[in-house]
Write a structure and sequence with these properties.
Number of helices: 19
Distance between the termini: 46 Å
Low-confidence stretches: none
Strand content: under 5%
Shape: globular
Structural class: mainly alpha
Helix content: over 70%
Length: about 400
């Protein structure tokens, strides 16, 4: 239920971005900054949570997540413009990060012999919530329900998870139970293997979350059902994570990550080059690619660098979200600049954005935005291509390390 609130915030926000832009007169750069604040709050909370979870316990962290979710949702409902949306989204991001800071180490503590598979099952509810949130936006928007009520729906699972967690007792984290010291934990996050995974996490998080979060903006001029692409991708992720057990067992996390990266790169390439209904085929390939990224990255660290503990898991997630936030801000400006470049020489973007629907200026803007969206995807495609090389190296490294262990 707690992760469901986190994912609903992504799905619903992706669905109402266009409405927020119109109501509060926000351009793509401003919308991208608002979106990025969720990715700022997340790493802030998840990293701090990683440092303190062993001291205060996972239950207290989840109480804090409940409070931040409650405040962020209510402030969003009563938003009056850019700054209230900025701070409300920041609060929701902090809540989302706090949920991850507590629940990821909770899963590894409950299932120490089956970490990666169980993390996939838990993180199934992230794309699951995006599916629910996106479909909810489509349904409520279709029947004329305003975006404030759509956001307010998140209060229901928030209150439920806050109540349920308040009644439960929690175990200690796996690191504490295993007897690893705090010094071991800090040494763990400074090993070359961990630092390599942290850098790779920047790329996997951007590939998955940036592309998903900006689906509505990037494809609104290509298809009338841009949000359905996000829903489609998320549905594929749900199915894949539900059947992650035999896949992870057969290929190991690093093998899954290599195949995922190849499919992600192919998926983005197809999103750029396919048009019409065939774009949903591209969405299937992309969904298959990004399905295992987040849980397998965390699972790899939990399995192979267990001494890094909750801090190792949470630094990884925090680093990924921070990378997404910076990339989102940069790409918001990139999108606006390239939209302007695809308009007539000397065009002022604001004038085109204020043009009435179906006018020549509005049609020219739609065409320019479509071209700019493809420009964004062309740049983003570079990331999974680089990751293919990185994860191929990781597979070889882990294979050689296993052989060395067997030889001893």
């Amino acid at each position: 239920m707690s992760l469901l609130v986190t994912s609903l915030s992504f799905g619903i926000r992706a669905g109402i971005m266009g409405q927020l832009g119109i109501q509060f007169d926000l351009n793509a750069g401003e919308l991208s900054t608002i979106t990025a604040t969720a990715f700022w709050g997340f790493p802030l909370a998840v990293v701090i949570g990683g440092f303190i979870v062993d001291l205060i316990g996972m239950k207290r962290l989840l109480v804090m997540a409940f409070i931040f979710h409650l405040l962020g949702i209510v402030l969003t409902i009563f938003a009056q413009g850019y700054w209230t949306l900025f701070f409300s989204t920041l609060l929701i991001g902090i809540a989302n990060g706090t949920v991850e800071a507590a629940c990821n180490p909770l899963v590894t503590a409950l299932y120490p012999q089956n970490k990666t598979t169980r993390l996939n099952y838990f993180h199934l509810w992230f794309p699951g919530g995006i599916v629910l949130g996106s479909l909810l936006v489509l349904l409520l928007s279709h029947i004329g329900i305003n975006w404030q009520i759509q956001v307010g729906v998140m209060l229901i699972p928030t209150v439920i998870y806050g109540y349920l967690f308040s009644k439960l007792e929690f175990p200690v984290t796996e690191r504490v139970a295993a007897g690893f010291t705090t010094a071991d934990m800090y040494k763990g996050v400074l090993t070359p293997l961990y630092l390599f995974m942290l850098i790779c996490m920047f790329g996997t998080a951007i590939t998955e979350l940036f592309t998903n979060q900006w689906t509505g903006v990037l494809f609104k001029t290509v298809t009338d059902n841009a949000l359905l692409i996000l829903t489609f991708v998320a549905t594929i992720q749900v199915i894949c994570r539900a059947f992650a057990g035999p896949i992870v067992h057969k290929l190991a996390p690093q093998g899954v990550l290599l195949i995922s990266t190849i499919l992600s790169a192919l998926g983005i390439y197809l999103l750029i080059n396919l048009h019409g209904e065939s774009i949903f085929f591209a969405a299937v390939i992309f969904g298959l690619g990004v399905a295992f990224f987040w849980p397998c990255m965390i699972g790899f660290v939990a399995e192979n660098i267990p001494q890094s503990g909750a801090l190792g898991i949470n630094l990884l997630g925090g680093g990924g979200m921070l990378a997404v936030s910076f990339y989102t801000i940069y790409m918001g400006g990139f999108y606006d600049r390239h939209t302007t470049q695809h308009l007539a020489t000397g065009a002022v973007l604001d004038n085109y954005q204020k043009a009435a629907t179906s006018t020549q200026m509005a049609n020219e803007l739609a065409h320019a935005q479509s071209l700019a969206g493809f420009d964004v995807l062309h740049v983003t495609l570079i990331i999974p291509v680089v990751l293919i090389i990185a994860f191929a190296g990781l597979v070889l490294y882990m294979r050689n390390r296993k052989k060395a262990v067997v030889a001893k």
